């Protein structure tokens, strides 16, 4: 089994009960993805799967640091990630969630999605931490004149 498929869990083959998984999302995993705003990082994930006859509950906790591009100076910046999510199988969607043909869980992808939703829409360094050359360039291009189209 390849490392990429290591965290794909086949629910049909797993015995009923509670199962724990430790996952690390690192630079190698992030680089294997296409079109991600995450440049790299390391996030430790702990997943607990409570598998029952007809459904399951998955708890995933993620904690670590990822690097994204600062929207202001375009340099890489670290973002701390710390979140927990609970995922339940949806029996209404599938007649029998465990025995359906789609009864696998990709834990690394679910963990990545949790990391992704924790990245703010706008991310920038704290005041004074941006690239100084870019700060000067931005300052040179600031428009201090009021917009003539805006009514007072």
User: What is the element string, with H for helices and E for strands?
Assistant: EEHEEEEHH
Count the beta strands: 6
Report the span from N to C terminus: 66 Å
Beta-strand share of residues? 35-45%
Helix amount: 10-25%
* Structural class based on helices, strands and sheet pairing: alpha+beta
Give the CA-based shape. elongated
| Chain-averaged pLDDT | 83
User: Major sheet: order of its strands?
Assistant: 2-3-4-5
Biggest β-sheet description: 4 strands, antiparallel
Number of helices: 3
Describe this structure in words.
Helix content is 17%, strand content 36%. The protein is of the alpha+beta class. The protein has one domain. The strands form 2 sheets. It has a 4-stranded antiparallel beta sheet with strand order 2-3-4-5. Strands 1-6 form a two-stranded antiparallel ribbon. Strand 4 and strand 5 form a beta hairpin. The longest helix is centred in the last third of the chain and has 11 residues, at 107-117. It is elongated, with a radius of gyration of 21 Å. The termini are far apart. 16% of the residues are buried. The model has no long low-confidence stretch (mean pLDDT 83).
């Amino acid at each position: 089994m390849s490392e990429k498929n290591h965290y794909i869990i086949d629910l049909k083959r797993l015995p009923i009960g509670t199962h724990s998984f430790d996952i690390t999302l690192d630079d190698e995993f992030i680089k294997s993805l296409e079109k991600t705003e995450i440049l790299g990082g390391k996030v430790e994930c702990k997943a607990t799967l409570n598998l029952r006859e007809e459904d399951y509950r998955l708890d995933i906790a993620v904690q670590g640091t990822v690097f994204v591009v600062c929207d202001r100076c375009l340099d890489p910046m670290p973002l701390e990630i710390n979140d927990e999510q609970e995922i339940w199988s949806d029996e209404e969607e599938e007649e029998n969630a465990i025995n359906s043909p789609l009864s696998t869980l990709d834990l690394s992808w679910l963990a990545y999605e949790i990391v992704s939703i924790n990245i703010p829409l706008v991310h920038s360094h704290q005041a004074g931490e941006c690239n100084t050359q870019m700060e000067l360039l931005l300052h040179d291009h600031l428009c201090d004149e009021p917009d003539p189209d805006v009514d007072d």
